[in-house]
Design goal:
Length: 375
C-alpha cells in the first residue's frame, strides 16, 4: 500500500485519519484484516492520533450489575455520548451502546481501563483481570489471595504511562505488610509487597485516580467520625494521609474537579431545594480545602436520595445519576455557571438490573491493547 507504487491507492495517513474517527470496537476488528493493517494500527502515531480524537469526544461509561442464570454477578458495559444539551431544552433521550459482559461483582476504573476480580480456585484466591470495556479485550493477571475485606484500586501514572494495581492485602496488619502492588506492561508480572504506608482503618470509598495520584476516604476515629484522605502516588509508590474534617460526618462522593480532588454531598436546604455541597483540595502539602455550595433548579425527574453524583465533565458540568434502576433511567447534567439542570433518559439496558454505575469522561485509548477477548 505504497503510494509510490500505486498512484490510485489511498495514502496511509488518510486511512489512519479515517480510522481514528471510528469506535474502538470497529478499529479492533481491523487489526485482523492483514499484517500490514495490524502494523499500521499498532504504531505509536495512530495510537496517539486515536487518543487525541477520543479525548475530543468523551463518553459516559455504564457498568450495569445484574444476576445471571447461574446466580452469578455479571458486569455489563454500555456507553453513550455526553451530549451538549441546548439550554432551551430540559430533557433528551439517548440510546446506550452495549459492548461486553464479564462475570464478576467488583470493578475499579482508571484512564479507560477496568480492573475486576475474576474467579480463583477458592473464595479467597482471586484472579484479577484488566479489560478494555469498549472492545471486550482483556488480560488475566497473576493470582493473589484476597480476603473478604480486601480491596483493589487501579491507578495510572501519566508520565511513565503505566498502570498499577494496589491491593489492601491484610486490612488490619502492620504497615509493612498491608499492601501489595502489581505493575502492568513489564516483562515479568508479579505482586510486590515492598511498599509501606501509615496506619489507617480501612476504606470508606472507592479509589479515584487523578493526575497520577489515587485517593480514597477512610475514618480516622470511628467514635468521632473524623475523616482522612489516603493519597497514593502511583509513580513513586508513596503514601500520604491528610485530614478531611471539612466533611463533618457526611461521607462524600470523591470526584475529579478540574484536575483536583473534590468531595461532594447532596442535601435539602432550609427551603426544601436540593443542595450540592463540595470541598476541593487545592493544596495537598498545605492541606488547603475550599467549599462550594450549589442549589439545583427544580426538576420533576430528580428528588433527594434518588441520585448520586457520578462526577464532573471537562465542560464543567456535574453529572448525577439515578440510584433506583427502575425504568426510565436518567442521568442529569447540572451547569453551575448557568444554574441549569438538564435530564437525559438512557435507553437500551438489559432487564433485571440490580445497579448502574456511571463513569464520566470515558476516553478510548489504544495504547493499551490486549490480545485476548471475552466470549
Amino acid at each position: 500500500m505504497n503510494r509510490a507504487e500505486n498512484s490510485d491507492s489511498i495514502p496511509i495517513d488518510l486511512i489512519l485519519e479515517i480510522l481514528s474517527r471510528l469506535p474502538s470496537k470497529s478499529v479492533g476488528r481491523f487489526h485482523c484484516v492483514s499484517k500490514l493493517w495490524r502494523s499500521m494500527l499498532s504504531c505509536p502515531y495512530f495510537k496517539e492520533l486515536y487518543l487525541t480524537r477520543s479525548s475530543a469526544r468523551p463518553r459516559l461509561l455504564f457498568v450495569v450489575h445484574s444476576v445471571g442464570e447461574e446466580e452469578e454477578e455479571e458486569l455489563h458495559f454500555y456507553s453513550s455520548s455526553q451530549p451538549s444539551i441546548p439550554y432551551d431544552k430540559s430533557s433528551l433521550v439517548v440510546a446506550a451502546d452495549y459492548h461486553t459482559t464479564f462475570t464478576s461483582e467488583l470493578c475499579n476504573y482508571a484512564s479507560g481501563l477496568i480492573c475486576f476480580r475474576g474467579k480463583g480456585c477458592s473464595e479467597e484466591e482471586a484472579m484479577p483481570m484488566i479489560c478494555n470495556p469498549m472492545t471486550g479485550q482483556y488480560a488475566e493477571l497473576p493470582k493473589v489471595i484476597m480476603y473478604i475485606p480486601s480491596k483493589a484500586v487501579l491507578g495510572f501514572d501519566p508520565i511513565d504511562k503505566q498502570f498499577k494495581i494496589l491491593v489492601e492485602h491484610f486490612p488490619y496488619s502492620s504497615a509493612t505488610n498491608r499492601h501489595i502492588i502489581l505493575t502492568l506492561g513489564v516483562p515479568k508480572l508479579g505482586w510486590r509487597s515492598d511498599i509501606c504506608c501509615p496506619k489507617y482503618y480501612g476504606y470508606l470509598s472507592e479509589g479515584i485516580c487523578i493526575s497520577g495520584v489515587v485517593y480514597y476516604l477512610h475514618c480516622a476515629r470511628y467514635s468521632k467520625g473524623v475523616y482522612e484522605i489516603v493519597c497514593f502516588d502511583v509513580r513513586y509508590e508513596e503514601f500520604k494521609v491528610i485530614e478531611a474534617q471539612c466533611f463533618n460526618h457526611e461521607t462524600p462522593t470523591l470526584i475529579n474537579y478540574k484536575g483536583k480532588l473534590g468531595g461532594i454531598t447532596g442535601n435539602l436546604n432550609d427551603s426544601g431545594a436540593i443542595e450540592l455541597r463540595m470541598w476541593v483540595l487545592h493544596d495537598v502539602e498545605k492541606q488547603e480545602w475550599s467549599e462550594y455550595v450549589y442549589t439545583l433548579p427544580e426538576n420533576d425527574d430528580i428528588k433527594l436520595h434518588d441520585f448520586t453524583v457520578a462526577g464532573m465533565t471537562t465542560r464543567g458540568e456535574f453529572v448525577l445519576s439515578m440510584i433506583d434502576t427502575f425504568k426510565p433511567f436518567y442521568v442529569f447534567y447540572f451547569n453551575p455557571e448557568k444554574n441549569a439542570l438538564r435530564s437525559v433518559e438512557i435507553q437500551g439496558f438489559r432487564e433485571n438490573v440490580s445497579s448502574v454505575k456511571v463513569l464520566v469522561d470515558h476516553v478510548e485509548d489504544f495504547n493499551f491493547f490486549f490480545k485476548r477477548e471475552s466470549s
